[in-house]
């Protein structure tokens, strides 16, 4: 009679040794940004980018330590570039955010719109090997809740009506009145060890309903995180 190979005992995911696993960690994200729903009159052009930095704490599930919840706080910023388009964020006399075409005189060659948020990220996480997070595959889905701290435009390179440079100068204008202060975005992150990729989509419009077009910012890029 042939000998039978004993089956491998099923691992008890409630009794892992996580003593070497840090409960708190930093997460850094660098992404490409753009908007969904941008009207044809708004000419977004260039390497739009974001940089996000968070401090988070990890709470493993007792019932299955491959799963955990991460929550923390941090800051996020987005930079959107416009070609021949002037976003008038400081025009307090306007009822809506005007995206005015430039030209016909002295003007800035391009503009950058920067928005900065104080953010609270929350994630539901799964790790294939939770005892060795520096080598394991990891997946996290979650959300970010943000509060608008600052919004401004930056005009770069003054040119004349013919497009010739007349001054290498910049000018900033600040104004938050056209933007929704609360931010809610869905997030997804996949990592191997400390390096991974992420994506996020804001589910409420960046611009207030009565102040301009309904646009939904999105971002994707690389992430560095221990968990």
Describe the structure.
This protein has 227 residues and is mostly beta strands. The protein is built from no helices and 11 strands. The protein has strands at residues 24-36, 49-60, 67-83, 85-87, 99-101, 107-127, 137-159, 165-174, 182-192, 195-202, 216-225. An 8-stranded antiparallel β-barrel has the order 1-2-3-6-7-9-10-11. The mean pLDDT is 88.
How would the blueprint of this fold be written?
Layout: E1 24-36, E2 49-60, E3 67-83, E4 85-87, E5 99-101, E6 107-127, E7 137-159, E8 165-174, E9 182-192, E10 195-202, E11 216-225
Strand composition percent: over 45%
Structural class by sheet pairing and helices: mainly beta
How does the overall form come out from the CA principal axes? elongated
Please outline the major beta sheet. Answer: 8 strands, antiparallel, barrel
**Average pLDDT rating:** 88
Q: How many beta-strand runs?
A: 11
Round the Cα radius of gyration to an integer and report it. 23 Å
Question: N-to-C SSE series?
Answer: EEEEEEEEEEE
| Separation, N- and C-terminal Cα atoms | 49 Å
* Number of discrete helical segments: 0
Unreliably modeled segments: none
Specify the helix fraction band.
under 10%
Lateral strand order in the biggest sheet: 1-2-3-6-7-9-10-11
């Amino acid at each position: 009679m042939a000998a039978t190979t004993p089956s491998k005992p099923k691992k008890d995911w409630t009794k892992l040794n996580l003593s070497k696993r840090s409960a708190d960690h930093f997460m850094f994200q660098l992404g490409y940004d753009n908007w969904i729903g941008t009207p044809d009159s708004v000419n977004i052009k260039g390497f739009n980018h974001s940089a996000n930095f968070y401090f988070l704490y990890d709470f493993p599930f007792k019932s299955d330590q491959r799963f955990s919840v991460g929550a923390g706080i941090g800051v996020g910023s987005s930079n959107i570039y416009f070609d021949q388009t002037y976003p008038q964020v400081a025009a307090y006399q306007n009822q809506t955010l005007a995206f005015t075409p430039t030209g016909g005189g002295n003007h800035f060659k391009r503009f950058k719109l920067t928005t900065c948020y104080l953010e609270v990220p929350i994630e539901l996480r799964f790790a294939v090997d939770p005892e060795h997070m520096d080598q394991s595959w990891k997946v996290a889905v979650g959300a970010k809740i943000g509060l608008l701290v600052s919004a401004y435009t930056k005009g770069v390179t003054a040119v004349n009506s013919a497009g010739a440079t007349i001054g290498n100068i910049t000018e900033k204008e600040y104004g938050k009145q056209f933007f929704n202060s609360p931010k809610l975005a869905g997030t997804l992150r996949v990592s191997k060890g400390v390096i991974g990729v992420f994506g996020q989509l804001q589910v409420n419009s960046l611009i207030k309903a009565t102040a301009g077009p309904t646009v939904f910012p999105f971002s994707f890029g690389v992430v560095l995180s221990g968990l």
